[in-house]
Specification:
Elements lengths: L1 E2 L1 E4 L15 H14 L3 E5 L5 H13 L4 E7 L2 H11 L6 E7 L2 H8 L3 H16 L4 E7 L6 H13 L4 E6 L6 H14 L7 E6 L6 H10 L4 E4 L13 H10 L6 E2 L7 H12 L20 H9 L19 E3 L5 H10 L6 H17 L3 E2 H12 L9 E8 L7 E7 L5 E7 L3 H12 L4 E11 L6 E10 L2 E9 L2 H19 L1 H5 L6
Parallel strand pairs: 1-10, 2-3, 2-9, 3-4, 4-5, 5-6, 6-7, 7-8, 8-9
Antiparallel strand pairs: 11-12, 13-14, 14-15, 16-17, 17-18
This protein binds acetyl coenzyme *A (ACO), 3-methyl-2-oxobutanoic acid and magnesium ion.
Pathway: Amino-acid biosynthesis; L-leucine biosynthesis; L-leucine from 3-methyl-2-oxobutanoate: step 1/4
Keywords: Acyltransferase, Amino-acid biosynthesis, Branched-chain amino acid biosynthesis, Cytoplasm, Leucine biosynthesis, Manganese, Metal-binding, Transferase
Organism: Alkalicoccus luteus
Length: 515
């Protein structure tokens, strides 16, 4: 059985999804979960793109020990140097360097001739190999490149030391037959191709990212790149959970397997969805809420008689379990710690105490605390990053009736200990609250997206809100959860504003806490 390496780029290409903006601790949480999932390589970011990305990549490389951590770089010396600084202390550092090879990209974007692109690619791969033991080289827009040119440049970058050759379908343009034949062509026409692993990287613009990735595997790709939940630039990347399950279920047809621990899929998907604010559609393959639900009578009858009549994947295979009642009001710290262990968390004593306090608060109002609730509490505690909050919710009140104008009063606490209070109305309760907050916030804030969902089921389910705002023209996202939908919305709004505030130059000068 051939082993296909999984290269996860949730933290790099996934973060290129419009509106997604993960901070350092959120990235670290996802990285730890990707390690549990068992990916072979994780692309933690693009270190030269910003100081924040540099720090995230460095922290992930220094923390993750069982997965190779990589970072992206253009074919530019300073990008490679910056990536080395971020990755050098990692357990298995590798670089991912790319340059475009299609006529349209070379002519209009890079403004280079094909010969200059070959020269640059070779020079930068050799330069990278002076530091990195493993170097992946990507031919950006490979699927719109000339095949013989591609074969020529691949041969030269392998000679220069590239250990992985990635052939991305950057704009999601290719089809399975065409993409598969490109891999076959390289295997047949690049004399030194066996010295490198061939890799697929597909985008979903025409809905073919997964099919194209599988076609690449059929034609000799030893690595597939993608993201959890298929998030990524534009229509997204190939969804890794779909690939891993497809290969597992169709072992009869494809003699290939990944090293993923499939039972970790659901939790990874939930974490990525929660932290990015990109909700998984109900009908999404493998991880959607409906993926294992049978609605019609004939299907239900079949499943009752023999599950496999309509079920090719079991929920258990991907870690979907029914929400167990975990603990309640009278549970103590020992039982709580034990539960965290069962759920796979390894938290510092300080974080356990913080989570336990939140858990206890919840048990005052919620009878059944489920694994989903705990997951929400633990994720919030683990990714809480802003030490200095410019605006902290102290109290709010909404007066609301179906035939009157909703009015909100909000009291916020400021870091200097003083309070501010305002009142405003709106067309609905949420709008009244947001209008009130608008009046109290000094920065120029506009809401660009607002989402509200429930965690788990039942009338006392936790509410989770995701809000995107622009603060002085730049977009930030925030999250908030609470048993009350309005409180979740207010918390998410303030979280986004505080994150935006942290990035404003004045805040840095005042020494606001770590982001
Ligand atoms: C297909 C992909 O997903 S590629 C990865 C996309 N990810 C990102 O772009 C990450 C976020 N990007 C950034 O933060 C910025 O674009 C930076 C820091 C990388 C560069 O910023 P700037 O220096 O301001 O350049 P800007 O983004 O405007 O333009 C890109 C430049 O890089 C060049 N370039 C693009 N790709 C490559 C490459 N692979 N190798 C070398 N040069 C490249 C472009 O031709 C352009 O050069 P020019 O300034 O001489 O015209
Ligand atoms: C940087 C490269 C690999 C990429 O993301 C793409 O071409 O889609
Ligand atoms: Mg991509």
């Amino acid at each position: 059985m051939a082993r296909v390496n999984i290269f996860d780029t949730t933290l790099r290409d996934g973060e290129q999804s419009p509106g997604v903006n993960l901070n350092r601790l959120e990235k670290l949480e996802i990285a730890k979960q990707l390690e549990r999932l068992g990916v072979d390589v994780m692309e933690a970011g693009f270190p030269a793109s910003s100081q924040g990305d540099f720090e995230s990549v460095r922290e992930i490389a220094n923390t993750i020990r069982n997965v190779s951590v990589t970072g992206l770089a253009r074919a530019v010396k300073s990008d490679i140097d910056t990536a080395w600084e971020a990755l050098k202390d990692g357990a298995d550092p590798r670089l991912h360097v790319f340059i475009a090879t299609s006529p349209i990209h070379m002519t209009y974007k890079l403004k280079k001739t094909p010969e200059e692109v070959i020269e640059k690619a070779v020079e930068m791969v050799s330069y990278a190999r002076e530091r990195f033991p493993k170097v992946e080289w990507s031919a950006e827009d490979a699927s719109r490149s000339d095949l013989s040119f591609l074969a020529e440049i691949i041969e030269k970058v392998i000679d220069a030391g590239a250990t992985v050759i990635n052939l991305p379908d950057t704009v999601g343009y290719t089809t399975p037959a065409e993409y598969g034949s490109m891999f076959r062509y390289m295997r047949e026409n690049v004399p030194n191709i066996d010295k490198a692993i061939l890799s697929a990287h597909c985008h979903d613009d025409l809905g073919m990212a997964l099919a194209n990735s599988i076609a690449a595997v059929e034609n000799g790709a030893g690595q597939v790149e993608g993201t959890i939940n298929g998030i990524g630039e534009r229509a997204g990347n190939a969804a890794l959970e779909e690939l891993a399950v497809a290969l597992k279920i169709r072992q009869d047809f494809y003699p290939a397997e990944t090293g993923l621990t499939l039972k970790e899929i659901k939790r990874t998907s939930d974490l990525v969805s929660k932290l990015t604010g990109m909700h998984v559609p109900r009908n999404k393959a493998v991880v959607g809420q409906n993926a294992f639900a049978h609605e019609s009578g004939i299907h239900q009858d079949g499943v009752l008689k023999h599950a496999q009549t309509y079920e090719i994947i079991t929920p258990e295979m991907v870690g979907v379990t029914s929400n167990s009642l975990v603990m309640g009001k009278h549970s103590g710290k020992h039982a709580f710690k034990d539960k965290l262990k069962q759920l796979g968390y390894d938290l510092s004593d300080e974080k356990v105490l913080e989570a336990f306090t939140e858990f206890k608060k919840l048990t005052d109002t919620k009878k059944e605390v489920t694994d989903d609730d705990l997951f929400t509490i633990l994720t919030d505690v683990q990714t809480k990053t802003i030490d200095v909050k410019k605006y902290e919710l102290n109290h709010f009140q909404v007066s609301y009736s179906d035939d009157g104008i909703p009015t909100a009063t909000v009291k916020l606490a400021k870091p200097d200990g003083s309070d501010i209070e305002h009142k405003a109305d709106g067309q609905g309760a949420v709008e009244a609250l947001f209008n009130t907050l608008d009046q109290m916030i000094e920065e120029d804030v506009h809401i660009t997206d607002f989402q509200l969902s429930s965690v788990g089921s039942g009338r006392d389910a936790l509410a989770q809100s995701n809000v995107k705002v622009t603060v002085n023209g730049t977009e930030y996202s925030g999250r908030g959860s609470s048993q009350d939908v309005l409180e979740a919305a207010v918390k998410a709004f303030l979280n986004a504003v505080n994150r935006g505030f942290y990035h404003q130059p004045a805040a840095k000068a005042q020494g606001a806490g770590a982001h």
